């Protein structure tokens, strides 16, 4: 009896439209995009090439924006598991967390005299910019999530349609192979029945779950073992899977 297959679960990532803020690659992209936005905010009001002022402004804006980005991503990483049940609630909570982090960093910046603007002007400007950028980002993430979901659904539909066309032919050919072996090679016929039962059981499994590569390779070998009885020497295959984990 084969040991149970370990299923890799990705239910949260499949149901939630937000990128995984716990992932290092996602954090790196967040830092990179934030830094590009900081460059834009510094270059837009630029009137002359005062490099000292340019570097100083870029450092201050980058520091502020990176704290907002990293703080927001950290909070989202902590609450991610509770956001996967409803994308509308997830978007609302995410929006509030980003604005809350923007307000907190703005308050710290004002109390440390890092800005020459008045208190309410600083808060209003930063919260307004954060609200607009966050809304655009959330909209982008949702559209991308819907596109990936639709692409995956279309791929599954095509795969199921192909399976529906192939399965009757394989079933018919397998039955003929078993019938031809029963009289003269009953042991081999029994082996084919067991292999066929294993393949049929796998075809009835949930296609949304993942299986290990070893299990998938075993199923392919079982399928080809049955086909080899029908094709004989015409079916030749060389396996090159040593480097695949």
Automatic annotation (TrEMBL):
GO terms for cellular component: membrane. This is Sensor histidine kinase FimS. It comes from Candidatus Thiomargarita nelsonii. Keywords: Kinase, Membrane, Transferase, Transmembrane, Transmembrane helix. GO terms for molecular function: phosphorelay sensor kinase activity. The keyword Membrane applies. Pfam families: His_kinase. The chain crosses the membrane at residues 24-46, 58-79, 88-110, 122-142. Residues 158-235 form the Signal transduction histidine kinase internal region domain. InterPro entries: Bact_2-comp_sensor_kinase, Sig_transdc_His_kin_internal. The keyword Hydrolase does not apply.
